[in-house]
Description:
By secondary structure, the protein is mainly alpha-helical. 38% of the residues lie in helices and 6% in strands. It has 11 helices and 5 strands. The protein has a 3-stranded parallel beta sheet, with helices on one face. A two-stranded antiparallel ribbon has the order 4-5.
Amino acid sequence: MNNQLNIPVGISDFKKIRENDYYYIDKSGLIKELLKRESAEVTLIIRPRRFGKTMGMSMLAHFFDIRSDNRRLFDGLEIIYDEALCSAWMNLFKELKSGSAGKIQVGQSLHTMSTALKDNTTLRFAVITGCLKIAKESIFTGTNNFVPDNITDSRFNEYFGFTDEEVDELFERYEHNNENAQISRQDLRIWYDGYTTKSGERIYNPRSVVLALMNNNIGNYWTSSGPYDEIFYYIRKNIDDVQNDLALMISGESVQVKIQEYAAAAMRLETKSEIFSAMVV
């Protein structure tokens, strides 16, 4: 693996990335966007796996953490030039961190969080991220102050995943640092821009783009990052004749499907829409 690009792989700690001078695509505008929408008590951001959610939360944590003066970490980034916002918000609130915990501890923590988020008069605002939308029958029952934002929305899309312009910059860096470049810009577009926002902007999977450029090889990096056994079962069984639609998509044809936000959390997938919805996340 060639890391002349100095791109962090498997590192989601914002502080470590900034202190070690890794290549960082500036997503600090997310902070301003969140604070502009302060009327939303709890913002729930849902994105697919490997789309920079942990990195985004780490950046927020270091911006708001009351225990540290982290201004140096944001030097040169978009947010630091908004002096009024930084003066009013930077490092003024305590950070909530997650660590290793068992199932019981996780359940207790989620219950506590649900209680803390529901009708809490001292809550200014909160941000939660995850792959699956929190269903109404989940442990968050009764917590009705969520404002969800998923891949089909447009409010925060540029802050999770890579945009065309960001991939252009990475690709220029790759060509400059690699005399034996085996990847074209078109390869990245064909393989990794798998999502389109409502505004028509293409969003790339960050993990796939970074690993392809570092390995100097196009590969199926995203699906190797998590289990898909359940979905493969439904495809093998050809539920709702899903194999025909998959064959059409592989050949380059379009297939119209209604994406269902809660399908991926369902115990059984019984329609093509549910299967494809589960594949999206």
